[in-house]
């Protein structure tokens, strides 16, 4: 089954996303690299730096889909 990816622009430099994380991204966020499921996270680009912050873990594809609809994500 294909992995889902949802995002929405919050401001000029902030994007809210729902997707699985790569091992590298999970480690960078201080999570166990083998963490599974979907994650709600922010991506920001301020001053050329690319920042990343995990807000929540989402344990099922159905929950990820429903949350994306609630947040108005495409």
Would you kindly provide a written description of the structure presented here, covering whatever features stand out?
The chain has a 4-stranded antiparallel β-sheet. It contains 2 helices and 4 strands. It has one domain (6-70). It has 74 residues and is an alpha+beta fold. The mean pLDDT is 88. The radius of gyration is 12 Å and the shape is flat. Strand 3 (38-46) and strand 4 (49-58) form a beta hairpin.
List keywords for this structure.
four-stranded antiparallel β-sheet; alpha+beta; single chain
Q: Point out poorly predicted stretches.
A: none
Task: Give the averaged pLDDT, no decimals.
Answer: 88
Instruction: List the secondary-structure elements in sequence, H or E.
Output: EEHEEH
Beta fraction = 35-45%
Structural class: alpha+beta
The order of strands across the largest sheet is 1-2-3-4
Main sheet specs: 4 strands, antiparallel
Distance between the termini: 19 Å
List the domain count as a whole number.
1
| Overall outline | flat
Strand segment tally: 4
Helix residue percentage: 10-25%
Radius of gyration: 12 Å
User: What is the count of DSSP helices, taking H or I runs of 4+ residues?
Assistant: 2
